[in-house]
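Bug report (template v2)

What were you trying to do?
Predict the complex of my protein with malonyl-coenzyme A.

What happened?
Run completed; filing so the output is reviewed.

Input:
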Amino acid sequence: MKNNNLFAALRAAFPDDLNAVAVETDHGLLYSWRDLERSTAMMANLLKSLDLPAGARIAMQVEKSVEAMMLYLATLRAGYVFLPLNTAYQSAEIEYFIENAEPSVVVCSSKNFGWVSKIAFKAGTQNVFTLDDDRTGSLLERAAHCSDLHEAVPRKADDLAAILYTSGTTGRSKGAMLTHGNLLSNALTLKAYWGWQPGDVLIHALPIFHVHGLFVALHGALINGSKMIWLSKFDPKLVLKKLPEATVFMGVPTLYVRLLAEPSLTHEACRHMRLFIAGSAPLLIETFTDWQQRTGHTILERYGMSETIMLTSNPYLAKDGERRGGTVGFPLPGVSVRVCDEDGKGLPTGEIGAIQVKGPNVFKGYWRMPEKTKEEFTSDGWFKTGDVGKIDERRYITIVGRSKDLIISGGYNVYPAEIEAYINDMQGVAESALVGVPHPDFGEVGVAVVIAKPGVQVNGDAVVASLKAQLANFKIPKKCFVVPELPRNTMGKVQKNVLREQYKALFA
Ligand code: MLC
Ligand code: AMP
């Protein structure tokens, strides 16, 4: 029977010359395809030696490094389930993920070992390793003693490969379960649709704990046997320096905004490039047109989410149509997209409604949340994205908003309910509301509006400072206002649209 292990498919795409460079880092290190092959085998053998239960989760919260990427590949190879965690998460956030996912292995940076291992051991995790971005840590020390030969463990297409936590409008984060089949089908579709070619070189400048950097960018290069220029952190000057050696770049809109601020971004600087791809948040039309003028390239915008990986894309080839700014293009081959009213009835062309999707890319469900999973699918099997949009007569899809109360800041999702719960718990706070307002760099940022309990003084800056001590940095509102009352409708519900309007020019 065919082995549907995603690693096996990625490995099969390695070039014949295993001595060729697979990854070049911003520190000037070179990793060959043979290095990827051998190091992932050693890590996979280490995982195997731990005698983990079938379906064991391997959680990782470490700074971006090639070794961290290898741990992901090794987890696939060994047939376990990868659980990447944003490095910005603090203890309360990590505690929730670890208690919820019950990973058998947790890998963290050595500076966090004290508090992370305490949480992990308390939750029953047996193995906690360290991994730092300078190629040190107990994970590598232990893997160094393992064989560099390893046969990818047979997996079925339906077997779990990764769990990505994504927050909800209400309640705690949910783990989206993605299978080997989901990830491979999407990688192959994108390889064909975006015209990956021999000789392509990707600048990988995104974090590797979310869909964009971990799957879209990484799988894209690997399934094409393409070299990656690996940046541990996005740095516009370094990207510009590397453009003449690269052909493909992927980024969230903030990365494009920051590149546009560099005077050396010119037609000439981008002469070697084949394709610029944007996604994870709306790309402003100004950014799209400025980029065209400054570089001569038309950004290809695509749309996806943790539960579905990539869903739609503007065309790569001119014969399939133009890349239209402000739209997210067409459903990818094999993916179905429909726009419905509240009752799930399909809407005519051009009408705005809920975006629902179906396809081999759509996840298996939320980790240990069968009820929540059921709620997010229609009775006829379509996944409700929570995004609101329309499809025009030429089939282009435009996202016009979200039915879910979500702020996307610099490509990271912030769920107001989570932040409001923290603020409401603070002394002296009666109620709060978090809204997203336009921001020139992050696209959108959170602003908190708070009312104090009668007779109590609450300081907005103190609210922000207190949140900083508890939550990931990208979730922190950029401003907090203390006001006498919040605008409400006749039902008493806070009118967030009124607040958004009131504060919309704050960062203009
Ligand atoms: C950092 N800060 C942010 C922020 N990132 N605030 C809001 N939103 C963000 N995204 C905070 C910092 O903590 C700091 O606060 C201040 O803002 C300035 O930080 P910075 O130094 O400018 O930030 P930097 O480290 O440069 O990070 C910015 C960034 C990063 C844009 C490079 O946020 C990033 O890598 N975003 C990409 C996210 C991503 O990969 N998303 C894909 C999700 S997948 P202070 O107070 O300390 O000054 C997905 C599906 C799909 O959505 O379709 O792809
Ligand atoms: P996540 O849950 O982090 O995977 O974020 C997924 C959400 O990001 C989607 O549901 C959309 O709301 C948003 N998103 C992704 N790509 C785009 C895009 N190109 N334009 C607008 N929104 C996008």
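What did the reviewer find?
The chain has a mean pLDDT of 97. Residues 33-49 form the longest helix (17 residues).
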